[in-house]
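Students often ask what a holo structure prediction actually looks like on paper. The answer is less mysterious than it sounds. You provide the chain, you provide the ligand, and the output is a string of discrete structure tokens encoding the 3D arrangement of the protein together with coenzyme A.
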Amino acid sequence: MSRSGQLNSPFHQWTTTMVNRVWSFVRTRGAVNWQHPLARRYGSMGEGSYQAFPPGDCTNPHTIHIGRNCFIGAGVTLAVGMPTEVYAPDHGPVIEIGDRTTVGKNCWFVARHSIVLEDDVMIAPNVYFTDHNHTYADPWLPVGQQVIQGKPVRVGAGTWIATNAVILPGTTIGANCTIAAGAVVRGDIPDHSVVAGVPGRIVRRWTRADGWQPPFTEPIGVVEGWPVGVPPELREPETPA
Ligand SMILES: CC(C)(COP(=O)(O)OP(=O)(O)OC[C@H]1O[C@@H](n2cnc3c(N)ncnc32)[C@H](O)[C@@H]1OP(=O)(O)O)[C@@H](O)C(=O)NCCC(=O)NCCS
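The corresponding structure tokens follow.
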């Protein structure tokens, strides 16, 4: 039988179907939701949150806090220190993920100090966050053996970070920012900024005084019934959960 004949044989088709069904079953059943005992390894996982299967590497999970109604994609690494580094059981939060935040597949959080995503942050796949650098001042010691220094990372509420972006130590990104695909970001980014490129630069920004500058090159389509944002000063106070 020819190779293509083998690939179309009933046995081959049956095994392909079974492998796909089993994998689909494994992925569905392997997801960990906030009610599952496995979620208790985290410092906290809020109601309505879940982590897709297969998970990425995870170290010192007791220092990782995940808010309510979050989605953590498959293969997301949540590393607090290396596997040999033990954080005390009563250590405070190192990675904090706010309510309704979604983290796409295969993102990396490599933390030693503090990485905070506030509420309603949306992270596309393959985004890399770290809060530390290897220093390299000693010319004769391998860089990997030199002192590690870090500064916290914070991402403001409502921000979107597009695929393959890298967020470097000491970065503070404001609220409702857009970080373009592939951007390498560090420093302080004000609210409502669009950052693109390597190194990341603000390419557009909204302020109350001037609106969006520079103006959009293409008009944003209006969809009837789509929700409209409300300025903070006009919002109803939130009732505590
Ligand atoms: C940032 C983005 C949303 C476009 O935003 P925008 O405000 O419409 O930006 P514009 O297209 O007007 O571009 C503004 C400037 O930024 C530059 N720019 C936009 N995206 C860029 C990128 N990813 N990398 C480098 N430069 C970029 C443009 O070239 C332009 O530069 P110029 O003024 O010198 O010509 C889009 O380019 C992007 O990166 N999307 C990510 C898609 C993605 O990852 N989706 C995952 C789904 S979760």
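The mean pLDDT is 95.
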